[in-house]
Amino acid sequence: MLPSYSPKSSSSPKKTNSIERKNSSGSFRSQSSFFFPNNNRLWLLLIIISLQIILLLMARGLPFFHRRSHFPSPLSYSHQLLQNSSNVSFTHHLKSAGISIPSAVSPPERCSSGRIFVYTLPAFFNQELLDNCADLDPWHSRCEALSNDGFGRKATGLSGVVPEDLVPAWYWTDQFAMEVIYHNRVLNHECRTTEPDSATAFYIPFYAGLAVGKYLWLGYSSRDRDRYCEMLLKWLQDQPYWNRSDGWDHFLTMGRITWDFRRSKNEDWGSSCLYMSGLRNITRLLIERNPWDYFDVGVPYPTGFHPRSDSEVVQWQDFVRNRRRTTLFCFAGAPRSTINNDFRGLLLSHCNNASGSCRAVNCTGTRCSNGTSVILETFLDSHFCLQPRGDSFTRRSVFDCMIAGSIPVFFWHRTAYLQYEWFLPDDPKSYSVFIHRDLVKNGASIKTILENYSTEEVNQMREKVIQYIPKLVYAKPEHGLENTKDAFDVAIDGVLQRIKEQEQPGFKWKR
Q1: Whole-angstrom Cα distance, residue 384 to residue 21?
Q2: Contact (Cβ atoms closer than 8 angstroms) between residue 486 and residue 192
Q3: 345, 290: one domain
Q4: Where is the composition biased (Low complexity) (predicted)?
């Protein structure tokens, strides 16, 4: 807020230096004798009044005098927020559930971190990939998975598993659909600008994951896997705002793990997109990051729950908080028989030998694929869920587990702690359990370790998990939720903040 100005009262005369009084009076006498040799007081009065009118008109043109008239007052905006919530008790419920309710925040102030310009790329880089969704995977069509703005088809078979009025908020969302979800949300973001000169950040809506996906198998060459990124780089190098910053204020989403874009040798897996020198300064949002690359940012895998309102977030949090859980821990995953000392197979054995304390879901085949509720039910019924590394260090199951209110048990730090700092609590012990994998390999009992946690400790960890659920889900509305920041909002806020931090002297390296 600008400081208010109040002129000092003239009732108490101020002591003035004699030299200042002398110079002031001398100046006035000389000016008055020059303009008014006949001491015409009427003319003097008219000129003084005219000067006051001119000064007043000039002052009204300053931003100080008209700034408030552009935005609603803090009181009226807060009142509007409360009216949009159903009642005062619901507003209190939002706060207790970890959902922030902005007070007295006008729309322009919500964009205080900056505005986003969205490039209009040639359709080759995004829309044509969606149009040809049947050809994105060598084994089956991706059209259904990418429908509904990336959320996939509506979930079925959840009646009796989740509250009936929340069933419409569930979809069978594909774990690699992030690029489509983010693109639609950025296009409708309240801080989007169509004027690049006013932008803090520049979003490149390139569907990098969809573009490389079909070329990862069946003998395609390294040139096939690099083609899209090479063409994107060539297009960007013709853009003045890219050249102005060398890409530092640009970001994009890459809907696969970072290792799919880090091929160092032609015969290796993936594309070499992130090793192309022209693309090294972009901030990239990925479902798995390289912890040693500053420009990689890990964001939550898309899951099936996409709340349509703040009240649905609160309702779901209450549901998982009050859920009666009958199993100490669970594990859902498929063993890797081709891998020596397969750790997932070892966890399945632990679970099967836990005498009813563990619920195992062997995901061999299609049992755990989208379209079934078996994993969700398992997590809802269990206090803890075992989360080893997947085919890479991370797995979507971490987020399925936490959204169900189950406490994750990790065996690698890189599965979550070094991945999703913007989205998870600072203290890993507050919401999770870490058991080093070597302890398990050497015979330690997972059941015994988890049984040593008291009921109070378990409830505290679960409450922390539940508190962070809003940051782990992607809301359904294109404009996001009214008062709740979901995973998308947290990611965009973080991108804008880091781009501002990069403007500090000495932060950026030179070309």
Answers
A1: 82
A2: no
A3: no
A4: 1-15
484 neighbors 470 (Cβ within 8 angstroms): yes
Q: How far does CA 358 lie from the centroid of its chain?
A: 34
**Euclidean distance between CA atoms 433 and 453, whole angstroms:** 10
d(CA 185, CA 198): 20
For residues 126 and 211, give the distance between their C-alpha atoms in angstroms, rounded to a whole number. 8
Residues ≥6 apart with Cβ < 8 Å to 434: 409, 410, 411, 413, 417, 428
The more confident residue out of 2 and 131 is 131
Strand, coil or helix: what is 471?
A: helix
For Cα atoms 108, 502, 113, give the angle at the middle one, nearest 5 degrees: 10
Q: Which tens digit of pLDDT belongs to each residue from 205-214?
A: 999 999 999 8
Instruction: Identify the domain containing residue 122 by its residue range.
Output: 115-302+487-501
Query: What is d(CA 404, CA 178) in angstroms, rounded to the nearest whole number?
Result: 20
Structure tokens given for 492: 């965009």
In 3-state terms, what secondary structure has residue 349? Answer: helix
Residue 83 parent element (H or E): helix 74-84
Residue range 311-319: mean pLDDT, rounded = 98
Query: Within this chain, do residues 206 and 350 fall inside the same structural domain, yes or no?
Result: no
Cβ 377 vs Cβ 240: under 8 Å: no
| Number of domains making up the chain | 3
> Can you give the CATH number for the domain in which 371 is found?
3.40.50.2000
One-letter amino acid identity for 138? P
Give the residue carrying structure tokens 């989740």. Answer: 162
As a whole number, mean pLDDT of residues 226-232 equals: 96
Residues 260 and 384 in one domain: no
How many other C-beta atoms lie within 10 A of the C-beta of residue 168?
14
Name the DSSP class of 177: -
Binning pLDDT at 50, 70 and 90, where does residue 50 land?
A: low
Residue 208 · residue 229 · CB < 8 Å:
yes
H-type alpha helices, 395-471: 397-403, 437-441, 446-451, 455-467
Q: Nearest-5° angle of CA 272, CA 394, CA 137?
A: 55
477 in any annotated domain:
no
The C-alpha torsion from 271 through 274 and 277 to 280, rounded to 10°, is: 170
In the block, tokens 């060598």 appear at 138
- Cα-Cα-Cα-Cα dihedral sign, residues 81, 86, 92, 97: negative
Q: Yes or no: say if 97 and 313 are a contact pair by the CB < 8 Å rule.
A: yes
First-to-last CA distance in the chain? 40
